[in-house]
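Record 1 of the preview.
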Amino acid sequence: MPRTGRDRPRIVATMGDPAGIGPEVLLRSLASGELRRLAEIRIAGSVAAMGRWSERLSMPIPVEIVDVGDAPAEAGRPERAGAKAALESIRTAAGMCLAGEADAMVTSPVSKRAISSLGAGFPGHTEFLAGLSGATDYVMTFVCGATRIALATTHLAIADVPGAITRELLVSKLSTLDRGLRECLGIARPVIAVAALNPHAGEGGSLGVEEDRVLVPAIREARGSGIDVTGPHPADALFPGTGGRGPARPAFDAALAMYHDQGTIPAKLLAGGSGVNITLGLPIVRTSVDHGTAFDIAGAGRADHRSMSSAIALAAEVALRRRAAERGRGSR
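->
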């Protein structure tokens, strides 16, 4: 049922890189009005750039824009000024959430390479927002239907992954994921499955030793702290609907993948274009699309806005759940 007045959560969505598909999927998601009935939505971005996209698509901008200054918006032609505006949009939205002016933020895709060229040291939204908010324990998680897939490591070269996976890291990620599933996604008693790093879960050490030396001890420690966790499971047989137990009744509520593509590939297959990336462990609510800037199709009318729509809807859901929890604590 649509919410009205002060019951609606306040969401700020970032523009993304103005040369990519971010502005397009944002405008298409807001066009029907359904999401605007669900939440009070604003955009953090360039008024001028969004105006040019509005004209290009012949679509109105139905919400207020918190202006970050002019920026070029030539579809498919990323520029430093556009990357700067995209970065400022993220800072603005995060600041609004931290100041209590917004209940959640939704991020549109940006170019890490373009932003890094500004000297900003931007490995990705997840790490950047953790730095802005002071969060030390966080986990990138993809929501795809009844399955949630989290990442133990994020934007690392494959060669660096084995050394980065430690017992301490995995216990921290499992703890953050377990708490996030309860507090943000409303799963009262989450079951978490851990994906192995090596093929066949190491095959008793013949295909890798990380399972025996790192993953198994971490899982035991997490179980000892009360987390319901299983594994390590061979990744190629773990995910429902992609060769695992089947999509109807998954045996777990969330899976923890060891590295980026191990988790994002099944997440995108399972989501079918409507997946959402949520960062659990931040002091603010942040969701995002599960795709990139797609400069090659920007402005061509081919951008799929389902992920953005799902990201806004999930942000509203989580914000309301957090608000209810805060009210509950306040009444005690």
